[in-house]
Amino acid sequence: MISSFKIDAMTGKLSHIDNQMMNANIAYISIDLTGQYLISASYPHHKIIVNPVSKNGDILKHQYTLNGFPNAHAVLIDKTNRYVLVPTLGDDRVYQFEFNVNSGKMKLNDPPYIDLNKNSLKKKVGPRHIVFHPNGQYIYVIGQFDASIHLFDFNPKTGVLNEKQNIFTLPVKYKYKRKAAADIHITPDGRFIYSSDRVSSTISGFEVDAESGFLTSIEVIETEKSPRGFNIDASGKYLLVVGELSNEMSIYRINKISGRLIKLKSYLMGINPNWVEIVTFP
């Protein structure tokens, strides 16, 4: 089920609008730039689903479903609203779609996907979450199983990706047998990018080269236990991270010169918090 809410711009309070039953369990949702369509990724049912959205914010009955996308984990829509990218953790791919805003329909691009695991000897990647650089030219994908950030050039004319960097997010002397990278976000000015890992309970920071998009490691810090979700505010000054197993949220100030994180305070949350969404009104 997907629930929709109205946000009070003065207080931030939510008012429930309606619920819409879905034909699959949903892991991630995105709304296209016109606000007319909601695109969902179903991790357990391997589907991508499109629902119309009413002017009042109601999620209407699903328009159509695309099947056969193993463990679809996120949905990213480009700045032109013409292309949709979906990382599928189950087969180590990022699928590339053309999006028709007039009909809300999606079709596979040419080529239909980018394979993050071309070499069969390579360990599984598990592409999980995905973000655009503010300039719209670079895309960063976090691999859950390899705990690496994969950098791609994005062609805005064709909607096609081209991988050019793969950087490990954890310390060289990583002491755990398992990795579980979770979330990834970039500052609004595009200077710094951060990722989280749930096993080591860490946040990793990187500096972004403005000319190439390449990443250079800044630091890895311990944070809330199992940081499944975090986000960066619109000013680019603060990073908020929730611990799924600590039931707390920590707030950090981002050093605008170095990109290093300075912890300010922790707050008690509900049980098993796993996402942070920051809403900014004009």
UniProtKB/TrEMBL annotation:
GO cellular component: cytosol
Keywords: Carbohydrate metabolism, Glucose metabolism
Source organism superkingdom: Bacteria
Native source organism of the sequence: Pseudoalteromonas denitrificans DSM 6059
Pfam families recorded: Lactonase
UniProt xrefs under InterPro entries: Cycloisomerase_2 (IPR050282), Lactonase_7-beta_prop (IPR019405), N2O_reductase_N (IPR011045), WD40/YVTN_repeat-like_dom_sf (IPR015943)
GO terms under biological process: glucose metabolic process
Family: Belongs to the cycloisomerase 2 family.
GO molecular function ontology, one term from the record: 6-phosphogluconolactonase activity
Lineage: Bacteria, Pseudomonadati, Pseudomonadota, Gammaproteobacteria, Alteromonadales
Transmembrane segments: none
Record's protein name: 6-phosphogluconolactonase
PANTHER family: 6-PHOSPHOGLUCONOLACTONASE, 6-PHOSPHOGLUCONOLACTONASE-RELATED
